[in-house]
Amino acid sequence: MDNEIQLISDGDGLAVIGNPTAVELFLVSEGLPSKDLGLQRLGPLLHAGAGVAQAGSEIAANSGRWVKLTEESAQLVKKFGLMESKTPGVSHAMVGKPGSIKSWLQIAKGPGSLLTNPALLAGAAGIMAQLAMQQTMDEIIDYLATIDEKVDDVLRAQKDAVLADMIGVDLVIEEAMTIREQVGRVSEVTWSKVQATSVTIARTQAYALRQLDALTEKVERKTKIGDLAKTSKEAESKAKEWLAVLARCFQLQDAIAVLELDRVLDAAPDELDRHRLGLRAARQNRLDLISRSTERLIARMNAAAGTANTKVLLHPTASRDVVHSSNQVEITVVDFHGRLGIESGRQSLEARRWVDAAAEVRDKVLETGAESVDTAWRLGNETFDRARSAAGKLSSGIAERALRRRGDDEEG
Q1: Helix axes 272-310, 118-146, angle to 10 degrees
Q2: In a domain? residue 138
């Protein structure tokens, strides 16, 4: 049937492959935005031997589109019951719209010729990994455009050689990505320009993480509410800057991975799938490292807010400033996590809400006066709203990924 299409999922995206008209009809019927998969790039996977001509004609005749896994597309994966393939982490199914049937149905006869070729399936998974990373890169660019301190300004303002080198690396990788887009591949010459840049990026990432850890330790050392308010304010400002540096590091690391997969596809296609899995594991390790550091900062800021809660009546202004900074840091980190795809189990601020703190001291009305209690309640309500806003931002930032994982678990 001309209206048969193949669905492939790697947990981050969904590839729709088949007759160009059928692919377009399917995407329109499901209301899914998509990007070109670039099937023609699988050419290097075709080795000499039986079936080469047939595989080549399949690639030429088919269209491939990539869809980011969102709430809607994750439900689509569940709807058609994609089955695990021999390629690790990749599932697939074939669907069609036979005769006058309006809805798309899974076809029981099994996968088509593209999916019977393990090399081509692994190649498709490699390209999907690239598209997923490029999607994250785009989201990081949007993130950097919305923060007050642009990362380029942060980098240029630093005299440290580690950060100064980062600017040069950025230019080299941007040039390589431009050449890749124009040429359609990564040559040995292009790769030779960027292959050593990962060391500089890793050094810069480590430096930024150390700066975040230093902020955490500085807040931890303060006990007086006045000092705590000043240090928390500094942490609020500096954390945003170092998160911006980390975001740029992650963006450039993803760009190198995209170039690296292209190079492997061209030079050693048999190793593409193993290389894809290796890059995926290394990327997750970076995410875990960043997550641990930022979570420590949030925990320390929340502890500071807890201290402020106990001193709300004696130091209402300083206490308010500490809690405000704590909330702002959490909101900033939640946004940062969402852009990088870091999932978190945090559903609300850990620090006690000021409403609770004020309630605890209501019995001190005669000692402190009604005005102080009114102040505590006002600040408490204000902080509660911020906490609720942070929790909402967190939920929206990770809901799609959490839903997708739950869907995968149910299928398994």
Answers
A1: 30
A2: no
